[in-house]
Design a protein that fits this description.
The chain is mainly beta. It contains no helices and 11 strands. Strands 2, 4, 5, 6, 9, 10 and 11 form a 7-stranded mixed beta sheet that branches. A 4-stranded antiparallel beta sheet has the order 1-3-8-7, with no helix packed on it. The chain is globular and about 40 Å long. The protein starts with a strand and ends with a strand.
Length: 116
């Protein structure tokens, strides 16, 4: 089992920045990809960014150039630096981890609210 705990959400004005963190614990040896997803009110959960064990990254078009993702395997942490935030970035952000054999884990989420 893998446990994921997010932190760093909050209220920020448009144009501001926030840094989300995810700490992983448990059986981590089989984890490959980690990432962030978000779900806005009334909308489906969507991918924000992912990062593999080797450091390859992938971003949603809506956040490219504004968000960066990083991972410290030694500390079992992953971060999402969010800059130039927009009101449409308002959502609950979820940490995600996927294993090499297809098992997925989710955190409970952290709320990000961007005011205009």
């Amino acid at each position: 089992q893998v446990q994921l705990v997010e932190s760093g959400g909050g209220l920020v004005q448009a144009g501001g920045s926030l840094r989300l963190s995810c700490v992983a614990s448990g059986s981590l040896f089989n984890i490959n990809t980690m990432g962030w997803f978000r779900q806005a009110p009334g909308k489906q959960r969507e991918l924000v960014a992912t990062i593999t064990n080797s450091g390859s990254t992938n971003f949603a078009d809506s956040v490219k150039g504004r968000f960066t993702i990083s991972r410290d395997n030694a500390k079992n942490t992953m971060n999402l630096q969010m800059n130039s935030l927009k009101p449409e970035d308002t959502a609950v952000y979820y940490c995600h981890a996927g294993t090499y054999n297809g098992i997925t884990y989710w955190g409970k989420g952290t709320l990000v609210t961007v005011s205009s």
